[in-house]
Design goal:
Number of domains: 1
Number of helices: 4
Helix content: 40-55%
CATH class: Alpha Beta
Distance between the termini: 76 Å
CATH topology: His-Me finger endonuclease fold
Strand order of the largest sheet: 1-2
Shape: flat
Oligomer: single chain
Length: 126
């Protein structure tokens, strides 16, 4: 019974490894895999660096917003972190469909400076 169970576990592990390698090859053939090979693992906007541990947070953004336009030279791609990618698409949607909020404001600029007296406050604590 133990021999069969060990052989079964070994076969299962071999299948997992085979599937993982096949999936990796498919990912590398995708535009994401190509972009990750072409460009350094940095966000093109905020310059955040990525490693293998957090690489899932780095996305491929299509500069012209056409996900079917994937030239192999990567000229339509840029790597963006999740936050900058969401921001880019939000800005695109606002310009494409118009924003309900006005982009210019007639409100006066704030004159309050929360750090105006900070130095004297720190000196009084000494």
């Amino acid at each position: 019974m133990t021999i069969k169970k060990t052989a079964l576990n070994k076969d299962k592990l071999n299948q997992i490894v085979t599937d993982a390698r096949r999936n990796q090859e498919l990912r590398e053939q995708s535009y994401r895999g190509q972009a990750l090979k072409l460009y350094p693992w940095l966000c093109g906007r905020c310059a955040r660096e990525f490693t293998h541990t957090n690489l899932t947070e780095l996305t491929v953004h299509h500069k012209n917003h056409n996900h079917d336009d994937n030239p192999t030279d990567g000229s339509n791609w840029e790597l963006l972190c999740l936050y900058c990618h969401d921001n880019e698409h939000s800005r695109y949607e606002e310009t494409r469909f118009g924003s309900s909020k006005s982009t210019t404001s007639n409100a006066p600029a704030s004159s309050h400076n929360p750090f105006a007296d900070l130095k004297s406050l720190l000196n009084s604590k000494k």
